[in-house]
Amino acid sequence: MIHQFKPGDLALIVGANSLTQNIGKVVELSSMVKDGDLYAGPNGSLYRHSDVDCWVVRGEGVVFRTEDGVFAGFGLCEPRHLRPIGSDFTAEQQKAKEAEPCA
Asked: I need a labelling partner for 30 at 20 to 30 A (CA). Which of 3, 68, 88, 103 fits?
């Protein structure tokens, strides 16, 4: 299922390639980073993203690892590892149910 996330959305982390301790955390999506993009890390340093598209996320208990150390409250997450939460998602689910053909 593809979700149309936007900055400010709330999501639940449901998977991870590494940093599995982030699974189950609620995060706010900040911005999407793509291969080659620069983004500011939690320590104020700039990093160049060199992987699949990811959301920069912020949330209590979320951790992020760089060559400078491990930081809390910040992370990167692939869209496939996120599930939307909140009222917008409820409306999205209702629309999907209404569009389903009757059996």
From this structure: 68
pLDDT digit string (tens) for 41-50?
888 889 899 9
Query: Total domain count for the chain?
Result: 1
Establish if 1 belongs to a structural domain: no
Sign of CA dihedral 25, 30, 32, 37: negative
Q: Which two tokens stand for residue 45?
A: 């340093």
Task: Name the residue range of residue 83's domain.
Answer: 10-99
Rounded to whole angstroms, the maximal C-alpha distance in the chain is 56
pTM as predicted: 0.78
How many CB atoms within 10 Å of residue 63? 15
- Per-residue DSSP letter, 40: E
Q: What's the chain's Rg over C-alpha atoms?
A: 15
In a domain, 71, yes or no: yes
- 4: in domain: no
